Amino acid sequence: MATLTAAYASEKDPWKLAETVTAAVFVLWIAHVYAHTLSEALSEGRQKLYDMGSIARRELGIMLAAALPVGALVLGAIGVFHETTAVWTALGLGLFTLGAEGVRFSRLEGFGRGATLMATSLNITLGLFVVTLKVFLAH
Question: Per the structure, how many domains does the chain have?
Answer without folding.
Answer: 1
